[in-house]
């Protein structure tokens, strides 16, 4: 039986810089809607990439209009077979209309389906929050940045699938 390593810790418990991303190719598809939040998520993801020894030329970043467009772009990227993992970053904030329900759930479902259809890990970095304060807290590059956590998950999944 082959032993698989447990996932590495994230955030303040993260290990010192390593080379876990050195031979990987990752794509990030990020929504432009709620750009202030998504840009912070993207910044956190890129910082985690650098921390893991990822090379600039092996990271692709594409922008789409909003969260609803993330699944089709993620699936197209995965279908190219050029990437070890895809990260989808976005932010949907609940409002006074049914917009949240029409976007958040279907976007998450579409991202999962893209991963299952292609066999390429598609990491959900889509914030689904009640208000802007929650979004800012989860995107804060000095604290709980979920973009960085998404990158860590992408690297872990890409390495895991290489071992299987």
For the biggest β-sheet, the strand order reads: 2-1-3-4
Question: Could you give the count of β-strands?
Answer: 4
Strand residue percentage: 15-25%
Shape: globular
Features:
single chain, 164 residues, alpha/beta, four-stranded parallel sheet, globular, disordered N terminus
Structure description:
The structure is a single chain. The protein is α/β, with parallel strands linked by helices and 164 residues long. 45% of the residues lie in helices and 18% in strands. It contains five helices and four strands. It has helices at 35-51, 70-79, 99-118, 132-139, 146-163; strands at residues 26-31, 59-64, 85-93, 122-129. Strands 2-1-3-4 form a four-stranded parallel beta sheet, with helices on both faces. Helix 1 (35-51) packs across helix 5. It starts with 25 loop residues before the first strand and ends with a helix.
Secondary structure elements and their pairing?
Blueprint: E1 26-31, H1 35-51, E2 59-64, H2 70-79, E3 85-93, H3 99-118, E4 122-129, H4 132-139, H5 146-163
Parallel strand pairs: 1-2, 1-3, 3-4
Helix pairs in contact: 1-4, 1-5, 2-3
Q: What's a quick, concise take on this entry?
A:
The protein is of the alpha/beta class and 164 residues long. 45% of the residues lie in helices and 18% in strands.
């Amino acid at each position: 039986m082959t032993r698989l390593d447990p996932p590495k810790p994230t955030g303040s418990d993260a290990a010192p810089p390593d080379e876990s991303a050195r031979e990987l190719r990752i794509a990030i598809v990020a929504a432009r809607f709620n750009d202030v939040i998504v840009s912070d998520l993207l910044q956190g993801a890129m910082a985690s990439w650098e921390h893991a020894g990822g090379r600039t030329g092996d990271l692709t970043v594409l922008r789409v209009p909003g969260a609803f467009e993330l699944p089709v772009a993620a699936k197209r990227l995965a279908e190219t077979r050029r990437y070890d993992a895809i990260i989808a970053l976005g932010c949907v904030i609940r409002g006074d209309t049914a917009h949240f329900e029409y976007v958040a759930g279907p976007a998450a479902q579409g991202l999962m389906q893209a991963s299952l259809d292609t066999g390429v890990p598609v990491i959900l970095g889509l914030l689904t929050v009640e208000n802007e304060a929650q979004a800012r807290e989860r995107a804060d590059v000095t604290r709980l940045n979920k973009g960085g956590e998404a990158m860590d998950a992408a690297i872990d999944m890409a390495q895991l699938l290489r071992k299987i």
